[in-house]
Each structure stands twice: as C-alpha cells, then as structure tokens.
Amino acid sequence: MDTRVTPVALAMLLALVPPVAGAQQVDPHFRLEKLAAGVYAAVRTDPPGWGANANNLFVIDADGVVVVDTNFGPSSTADVLKALRTLTDKPVRFVINTHWHDDHVLGNQVYRDAFPGVQFIAHAATREYLPGKGLEARKQMMAGAPAFANDLRGFLKSGKSPAGGELTPEERAAFESDVAMIDRYAADMPSFDVVLPTITVEDKLTLYRGTRAVVVESVGAGHTGGDLVVYLPGDGILATGDLVVAPIPLVGGDQSHIASWIDALDRISAMRATTILPGHGPIMHDDGYVRQMAGAFRAIKGYVDAAAGRGETLEQIQKSIRLDDWRQRFAGDSTLRRVIFRNYLVGPAVIAAYREATRRAALQGRH
C-alpha cells in the first residue's frame, strides 16, 4: 500500500487522550467538553490512524448557536447535531467553515436543512475552491477511497504491517477505525450536496452574540489558501481549524503554504489563547504545540531554501533531508505515527517549500 496517495480528506490524525473532567461522552466517536459558559467542543475520540473527522465548536447565546466546522458527510454531522440538541434547543444561526476540506464542510447541508436562514461563513478562497478544484478533488477521493479501505482490510486479515513485521495493536485499532470511517463516507456519497458560504471573509469579521464577540479571522494561508481561525477574546478560546493538527500536522504538497503557515502559527501564539481547539486532536491550554509546529516548518523551510539555492532538485532534497529530532518529538517510537510523519508532514512540506523557493527564485530572476 502506498500511503502517500490516501484521500486528503481522510488524511487526518487524532491523539488518544482520556476524557477530562466535565467531558460528556455522547457518541462513540466524540465527546462534548464544556470550555466556558455556553461554549462547548465536540472532540473526536477515534483511535489514531490515517482517517479522522473534524472537531467542532458550539457557541450558544440567548438567540441561537454559532457552529464552527461541520463534518465529512451528512450522517456524521447529524450525530453532532444530535449531541448539540442535548445542550440547547436554540436554532443554529451561523456555521463557520475554517477551510475547504471535506471533513470540515460536507455536513453543511444538515444545518441548511434543519435551520432555514442559517448563514455559512468561510474564507473567500473557500467559496472559489469548492465548486471547481474541490469537486475534482472529491471525485478523485470517491474513486480512491474504496480501494484504500480494501488495502486496510487486507492488512487486518493478514496481520501484517505495511511498515513490515506484525501489525501492532495501534495499527489494528487505527485500520479498523479507518475502514469504518471510509465505509461511512462511501455510504454518504450519493447524498453529498455542497453548500457554499453565504458570507465570505478575507481579513476579519466579528459577530456580536449577546455580550460575546466571536472573531472570525484570516491569519494567513497555511494548511490551505483559505484558512480561518475563530477567536472568543473574552473567553481566551481559539478554534484553529487545520492550521493546528495534533499529534502530527497534516500538510498538502499542492495546497499548503509553508512560509506563510509559519507566520500564521506565530500569529496564533500571539493571541495568547488559554484554550486552543485544533482542527484534529485534543484541546490544548498553552501554545507549546503550536510553537513546535512552527519550529518544524522553519527547519524544513531552512533546509529546502538552502538546498534549492545550491541548485539541488526536489528529488535530491527529498533523499537528503533528515529530521530525526523532529520525528521523535511528533511520533516518538510509534511505527504508525512515524510513517504518517514521513508521508503527511515531511514529504508534502518539502514539496510545498520547494515550490515556494523556486517561485521566489524565479521572481527574483526577473528583476
């Protein structure tokens, strides 16, 4: 199995963490965590693997609810809405999509159908991407997902790891979860109905919900060219979308922007949030992991810039780059996470950084 060609929307990784005080397990795949008065997160609890679904944020006020991110299909989003209904019967007024990947937008239709008049907020680039490039990417994903699931079933049946040797317990749990997730995505495929944003943001938008400000802000391109964060300054709560993903970042070679991602992470740190909800992974209470991500990207960018400046090709750089210290920080001794670190962080980050380096060189050569 070539793990480098797995579907982008399924290329997410969650950390295994025990429930925290105040968390409520309402679904086998996520738990609700209260972050502040009227503010809750739906945090995914699926085992680490190649696939995962998005975390969600709910901001509840006297008039209604603001939801941050939907999920990879109608059925999983319906589960999240059912959980929201255990918290409030108020209508959803706004849905904010932090970026354009399917696991953050494909559930929009559930809120559209349940709440007439709901507004959808996203970056202007998301509205441009979804009907064109997004549709083509989804077609490729639909074509490739069943074959990938069959590959995973093969490893489960044989008990052999794609990395060599016996399948580890961590890999078995991951592959079983991945297969179930892909099967659910495939079952939802006939009902996919992409809902475009009705409100777009390029810089900053503030929603005033009672006494609470909900700041929707672009801190720069990073994971995609249309990333937004959602900040509740009065509560110190920040939802980052996939600008922050734990325990291993997800980078797209063709869609991510390493240089500006570093700047975006620095801006996230400067917000000094006391509660950070990443796009995938556990809730964080400081910016240590955010700074770790920025450090890894700086290391990759620095290496690629220097090598490209010497005239090395992308293939040469891919073979020569060594990030053992960073691999240990992100993946530890986990066989599964080490493979994901290589395929979803280092590999695509080098491609993206090389694209940026050669583009800068070409622009400088014109002057």
What is the overall number of helices?
10
CATH topology of the largest domain: Metallo-beta-lactamase, Chain A
Which word captures the global form?
Answer: globular
> What Rg, in angstroms, do the CA atoms define?
20 Å
Biggest beta-sheet profile: 8 strands, mixed
Strand content: 15-25%
Oligomer: single chain
How many structural units, i.e. domains? 2
Cα distance spanning the termini: 46 Å
Low-confidence stretches: 1-21
Proportion of helical residues: 40-55%
The H/E string reads: EEEEEHEHHEHHEEEEEHEHHHH
Describe the structure.
- The chain is an alpha/beta fold and 367 residues long.
- It folds into two domains: 221 residues, Ribonuclease Z/Hydroxyacylglutathione hydrolase-like (Metallo-beta-lactamase, Chain A, 4-Layer Sandwich); 65 residues, no CATH class.
- Helix content is 43%, strand content 19%.
- It has an eight-stranded mixed β-sheet. It has a five-stranded mixed β-sheet with strand order 9-10-11-12-13, with helices on one face.
- The longest helix has 35 residues.
- The chain is globular, with a radius of gyration of 20 Å.
- The termini are far apart.
Structure summary:
The chain is of the alpha/beta class and 367 residues long.
Question: What descriptive keywords fit this protein?
Answer:
10 helices; 43% helix; alpha/beta; 13 strands; 367 residues; Metallo-beta-lactamase, Chain A; 8-stranded mixed sheet; globular
List the topology elements.
Blueprint: E1 23-27, E2 30-36, E3 39-44, E4 56-60, E5 65-68, H1 74-85, E6 92-96, H2 102-105, H3 108-114, E7 119-123, H4 124-158, H5 169-188, E8 199-201, E9 204-209, E10 212-217, E11 229-232, E12 237-245, H6 258-270, E13 275-280, H7 288-309, H8 314-320, H9 324-331, H10 335-365
Parallel strand pairs: 5-6, 6-7, 7-8, 12-13
Antiparallel strand pairs: 1-2, 2-3, 3-4, 4-5, 9-10, 10-11, 11-12
Helix pairs in contact: 1-3, 4-5, 6-7, 7-10, 9-10
